[in-house]
Design brief:
Elements: E1 2-5, H1 12-15, H2 27-40, H3 42-52, H4 64-73, H5 76-94, E2 103-106, E3 109-117, E4 120-124, H6 133-146, E5 150-155, H7 165-174, E6 178-181, H8 184-193, E7 203-205, H9 210-219, E8 225-226, E9 234-239, H10 245-256, E10 263-268, H11 271-285, H12 291-298, E11 302-305, H13 309-319, E12 323-327, H14 331-335, E13 343-346, H15 352-357, E14 383-391, H16 393-409, H17 413-429
Parallel strand pairs: 1-11, 4-5, 4-7, 5-6, 7-8, 9-10, 9-12, 10-11, 12-13
Antiparallel strand pairs: 2-3, 3-14
Helix pairs in contact: 2-3, 2-8, 2-9, 3-8, 4-7, 5-6, 5-7, 6-7, 8-9, 10-11, 10-12, 16-17
Length: 430
């Protein structure tokens, strides 16, 4: 891991750079796949499944029999864990329900908002080196609470043409309507435009590799909404001399094993802790089954010692980490000064893994510094707010002349007239 001691502020921008994920140079390749799925539907998706996922499929939809079989293949311990996580995610997200208030902005002028679910949502769950059944819960549970009418899930099958049983079980527990065997760009295109089997949705959620990210960016330009821009996953641990080096090292490695382009950062006020963490990372790394992935990821990672907590907080807000773990003596006071982060984990007993799986918060979060402007997935991600207003005679008489004046000054005479004719009618009636 790269060690940096007391960096000057002029170095911060360079220091806080992420592993580059330049999706623009994939656009031509990705666009060709999208266009073919758009034109040929299921046939194109099935061919791409054979080409990219090495799965020869007769149909894209997961059958009821496959879902029932999957349930028998998941251990009781894992089922119990999935149900517990689902319950906590449900409790946390249900508390986010929007309650609109009717507001009288002026006597006779009443305005309010109503929350309405997005009717059709598409969830993308990657395959690859690990089955992300936890992401099924993170996306489908709030979609269900929001009241989305159709929840469609696409995930790549294995070479045997089957979806991982834990993914199917989590989908059942969370209330997913329909599941399809489709991965990568072809899955995003199918949900964006619809095929004979896979319905078109209004918003697509979920992580993926750089091809999936590029596909989401392209379809979002005009055809469908997406959850947020996404890059490789990242964590920052903000620690002082009281932190436990073994805990800090474990937190850094839990991020590093996500993928070779993940980034793990330690920002500390204690050079002694930094050295202790370095030794612990090396010791724990040797014991990991995914050691090779974590090792490559650690090349992007940094251990940074700064002069004081003031500087540590400023550096953290500049970095805007996806995950931030605060392991300091006065972590509540430090947390109060954090303004840029996706999800924050407080104290020595709150690892990032808790939020990744079962504490109840959502793990679909803004990466690559987007935490400065974006929130993670929440109940709000699955709803729209429609505004309503009602104006009585008293109300239009109160604000009518202001509307006329503003419209006239913007040279929008028809706007002005829409009020003038009403005021004329009311005054004639009086």
């Amino acid at each position: 891991m790269n060690i940096i001691i007391n960096p000057d502020k002029s170095q911060w921008t360079e220091l806080l750079k992420r592993p580059v994920m330049n999706t623009e140079n994939l656009f031509d390749t990705v666009r060709a796949i999208i266009d073919r799925v758009k034109a040929e539907g299921d046939r194109a998706v099935l061919e791409y499944e054979e080409k990219f996922d090495k799965a020869v499929l007769a149909a894209l939809a997961v059958t009821k029999a496959e879902q029932e079989e999957a349930e028998t293949l998941v251990s009781e311990e894992l089922k119990k864990a999935i149900r517990l996580a689902k319950q906590n995610i449900e409790t946390f997200h249900a508390a986010q329900r929007f309650e609109g208030r009717r507001v009288e902005t002026q006597p006779g002028v009443t305005c309010w908002q109503k929350a309405v679910a997005i009717e059709k949502v598409g969830l993308y769950i990657p395959g690859g080196t690990a089955p992300l059944f936890s992401t099924v819960l993170m996306l489908a549970v709030p979609a269900k609470i929001a009241g989305c009418r159709e929840i469609v899930l696409c995930t790549p099958p294995g070479k045997d043409g089957k979806v991982h049983p834990a993914v199917l079980f989590a989908a059942k527990v969370a209330g997913v309507s329909r599941i399809f065997k489709a991965g990568g760009v072809q899955a995003i295109a199918a949900m964006a435009y619809g095929t004979e089997s896979i319905p078109k949705v209004y918003k697509i959620f979920g992580p993926g590799n750089q091809y999936v990210t590029a596909a989401k960016q392209l379809v979002s330009l005009r055809d469908v909404a997406i959850d947020m821009p996404a890059g490789p996953s990242e964590v920052e641990v903000l620690a002082d001399g009281t932190a436990n080096p073994a805990f800090v090292a474990a937190d850094l490695l839990s991020q590093a094993e996500h993928g070779v382009d993940s980034q793990a950062m330690l920002v500390t006020t204690s050079p002694e802790l930094l050295q202790a963490v370095k030794k612990e990372v090396e010791r724990q790394l040797a014991l990991l089954p995914r050691k090779e992935i974590a090792e490559k990821s650690l090349a992007n990672s940094k251990l940074i010692a700064v002069r004081d907590m003031e500087e540590a907080i400023e550096l953290t807000n500049s970095y805007a980490p996806e995950h931030l773990i605060i392991e300091t003596e006065d972590y509540m006071s430090v947390a109060g000064r954090i303004v840029n982060a996706g999800s924050v984990f407080l104290g020595s007993l709150t690892p990032e893994s808790a939020g990744d799986y079962a504490s109840g918060t959502n793990h679909t979060l803004p990466t690559n510094g987007y935490a400065k402007a974006y929130s993670g997935v929440s109940l709000d991600s699955f709803i729209r707010k429609i505004t309503f207003q009602e104006i009585t005679p008293e109300g239009i008489l109160a604000i009518g002349s202001a509307i006329e004046e503003m419209a006239a000054n913007e040279h929008l005479d028809a706007h002005k007239n829409a009020v003038t004719v009403r005021l004329g009618k009311l005054k004639a009636g009086h």
